[in-house]
Amino acid sequence: MPVLEANPRGVLHLVLLNQYYPPDAAPTGWMLAGVAETLAAAGHQVTVICSRGGYAGGGGAMNPPPSSVRIVRVGAPAFGRKSFLGKLVDYVGYYLGVAWHLAVLTPKPDRIVALTTPPYLSILARIFSCLRGGDHAHWVMDLYPDVMVAHGMLREGSLPHRMLARLTRTGFAGRRCATVLCLGEDMRERLRSYVSESTDIAVVPLWSSAAADPPPELVARLRVSRGWAPEDLVLMYSGNMGLGHRFGEFLEAAVSPPLPGVRFSFHGDGKRRIEIEAAVRERPDAAIELHGYAPGEQLAAHLASADVHLASLEPSWDGCMVPSKLQGIFAAGRPVIFVGSRQSSIGRWVEESGGGWVVGPGDIAALHEAIREAAAPAERLRRGNAARAFADGHFHRERNLAEVSRILSGETRH
């Protein structure tokens, strides 16, 4: 059971740990900012300890919201995410800064809430909750060392893997661990091997930061500016192109589309962008477009400009992370073709909602069939409406913000 005891007015000093925070463009920082502001609005004293270093150099950052939160920026290095060594140096600098501030912060934290960038902040949260008399809670965005196994950096069952798994259990252990929060049922299933039976594991999905209803004329202008004809069927992949995603199926379908007038439009960046760049070079006749990230102020119109969205996840990554791209797609009222497993959170949400198609990895025939079905406007509308209804019920920003804040602050449900 948690040991947290609020002061007589019920006001807590909550200290939130994450490497990134606005104006950094990192999604984890923006999600945390909403929670921090919600906690502050509820009357709690909220301190965020983040880094001065930028996510991917800080490019693409939006203007941060007005804040009633105390923000402590650690003067860690800022090599960014372009190399493993630079990222590791940034992590170490941030760990040291967090340890110093947790040791001297006043007033003492009632609860230390650790996110998972960088990994193993849970250890610092546990140590300093003990040293300073509070407790600790955890909001898991990425699960280590499982991510490293999926990445190919570790072999499951090896000595380094067992050592890091024990470190994960240590961070979540102890009578001072109040709660563990994660993003989906597949992640909760993985977490159960790291968290004691007496500790609750809560699930709250993330939400979209994009407006749901951009002006139709803005969407139409955006399509025209990209050279898309009204009759084109635009299949869009938008977001991170990381190692946990799959692109082979989409690129194969783009080279031999099942229907004329199908365009594959990729927007974003990441380690696997090179696969799409290679396809563009090698098959200039294929209807493949490659762009960078859409500007933040255009995100809603950008998402709405597609007829159907594309998403993917390597099954080995199920439960290690839960990408948040589906939230924005569904909020825009657009269906999705997802290549991945039905056991993943995304696969479950797509099937439960009826807001798209789930295609097994490597199943090009099923992908072609999904594209043929998506070519029918009535079918797209039906699935898009189902997607938006599901988003309203499961990915609602204010509702989920309130639920995350309630869980992390230890408030009881009224």
Structural write-up:
- The chain is α/β, with parallel strands linked by helices and 414 residues long.
- 40% of the residues lie in helices and 16% in strands.
- It has 15 helices and 13 strands.
- A seven-stranded parallel sheet has the order 3-2-1-4-5-6-7, sandwiched between helices. The protein has a six-stranded parallel sheet with strand order 10-9-8-11-12-13, sandwiched between helices.
- β12, α12 and β13 form a beta-alpha-beta unit.
- α2 runs parallel beside α3 and α3 runs parallel beside α5.
- The longest helix is centred in the first third of the chain and has 21 residues.
- The relative contact order is 0.11.
- The N terminus is likely disordered.
| Topology order in helix (H) and strand (E) letters | EHEEHEHEHHEHEHEHEHEHEHEHEHHH
Computed structural class: alpha/beta
Radius of gyration, rounded? 22 Å
Q: Could you name the ranges where pLDDT drops below 50 across 5 or more consecutive residues?
A: 1-9, 56-62
Characterize the overall form.
Answer: globular
Query: Could you tell me the strand content as a percent range?
Result: 15-25%
Classify the oligomer: single chain
Strand order of the largest sheet: 3-2-1-4-5-6-7
| Helix percentage range | 40-55%
Q: Tally of extended strands?
A: 13
Task: Summarize model confidence as the mean pLDDT.
Answer: 91
Question: Keywords, please?
Answer:
disordered N terminus; six-stranded parallel beta sheet; 40% helix; seven-stranded parallel beta sheet; globular; 414 residues; 16% strand; alpha/beta
